[in-house]
Amino acid sequence: MRPFELTAPATVEDALASPGTFLAGGTTLVDLMKLNVLTPQHVLDINELPLRGIDTSDGLRIGALERMSDIAVHPGVYPAISRALLLSASQQLRNMASIGGNLLQRTRCTYFRDVATPCNRRDPGSGCPAISGANRMHAVLGTSDSCVATHASDVAVALVALGAEVRLVSKTGSRTVGLSDFYRVPGDSPEVENDLRPGELIAEVLVPRLDWASHSTYVKVRDRQSYEFALCSAAVALDIQGSQIVDARVAVGGVATVPWRLTAVEEALRGAPATPTAFEAAASVAADGARPLAENEFKVSLLKRTVVRALLELTEGSR
Fold first, then answer.
1. Which helix (H) or strand (E) holds 83?
2. How far apart are CA 23 and CA 30, in angstroms?
3. What residue spans define the domains of the chain?
4. For 143-229, where are the E strands, in sequence order?
5. Is 197 left (phi over 0), alpha (psi -120 to 50) or beta?
C-alpha cells in the first residue's frame, strides 16, 4: 500500500469540496489499495456524515452510510433485499460495509485485481486476458470484446429488480438516477463502470413503494455456502391474484457485467399461471443474447434453472 493522506470532513459540503477518494466501510477500497489497484493520495473518511437512516413509511429510503447488517434486519425491508444482504460476504464484513459502498464495489475479476496483468478496466487499452484465459466466474451477458467481468454486488440485483434509484449529491446540487441506468455495460469503455460523475457522492437509495414486493426472494448459487461470490443469483417478486401472475420483477447476478433485469422473463410471466410449467417457459428466454466463454458455458443453463428455483421457492413458500 502506498502512503496517503487521510482526513475526515465534518459535513457533506466539506466532503464534496475536498478532492480525494471517499471511504466508508472500506471493505473494497482498502483491499484494492493493498493490492495497488487503487492508489489515492487523499482519502476522505465520510463515516461521520449525516447520511444514515432507514424509512419504510412510503417505499424504502436508505441512507448511503447505513451498514448492510442493519438494513438486512430492519422491519419493513423487502424480503429480496434483506435476503440478498444476508447472503453477502460474512457477518463481520456486513457489519462494516455501507450500502452506498456496496453498490460501488469493483469487480472481483482476478485480472483486474492483479496489477501484473493487463486489464481494460484498470488500464484502458491494455487488453482483456479473461476472454481467452481463466473465465469460469466471468459474465455471459452484457459483455464486449473489451471486458467480460461480472458485477459483484448481491443487493444491487435485488434493488434493480425492484426499480430502485440512487440520489447523488455534488457541489452543484443533487440528481436521482434509476439504478438500472446507473450501471454501464463495458462496451468499448469498460473503465466507465457507472454514471457517478467526478465529485459526486451517493446520498441515499430509494426503492419505490411496491406492496406486492413483500412477496419476493433472492436465491444465490455459489461454490460454497458462505463468503463466496455468486455463480448465478436471482431476485424475483411476484404479484399473484388467485392462481394467476399479474405482475413480476426478475433480475439476475453473477452472470452479467451489471445487475441484469430480465424484462423478457417478466413479460412471459405476466398473465401466466403460477405453475412450474409456466416458470420453465418464462425462464427459457432468460439467457437470450448470452455469449459464453470456454469455461463458463454452464452459466447459460444455470441461469435458467436459478430463475425457476427462485420462482418455485417463492410460490411454494406461500402455499
1. helix 79-86
2. 9
3. 1-50, 211-316
4. 165-170, 173-178, 201-207, 216-221
5. beta
The set of residues, in sequence order, having a beta carbon less than 8 Å from that of 211 and lying 6+ positions away, is none
Alpha carbons 22 and 40: distance in angstroms, whole number: 10
Specify the CATH class of 1-50 in words.
alpha beta
Instruction: Express each pLDDT in 43-98 by its tens digit.
Output: 999 999 999 999 999 999 999 999 999 999 999 999 999 999 999 988 899 999 99
Residue type, 238: L
Q: Tell me the pLDDT tens digit for each residue of 195-232.
A: 999 999 999 999 999 999 999 999 999 998 888 899 99
Structural contact between residues 139 and 148, judged by C-beta atoms closer than 8 angstroms: yes
Residue pair 154/253 in contact by the 8 Å Cβ criterion: yes
CATH number of 211-316, picked from 3.30.390.50, 3.40.47.10, 3.40.630.30, 3.90.550.10 = 3.30.390.50
Q: CA–CA separation, 266 vs 309, rounded Å? A: 15
SS3 92: helix
DSSP 8-class letter at 225: S
- C-alpha cell recorded at residue 40: 489515492
Amino acid at 150: T
First to last CA, the chain: 54
pLDDT digits (tens, 9 = 90+) for 114-127: 999 999 999 999 99
Query: Quick one: pLDDT at residue 231?
Result: 97
Cα–Cα dist 166/283, whole Å: 29
Grid cell, residue 181, equals 441506468
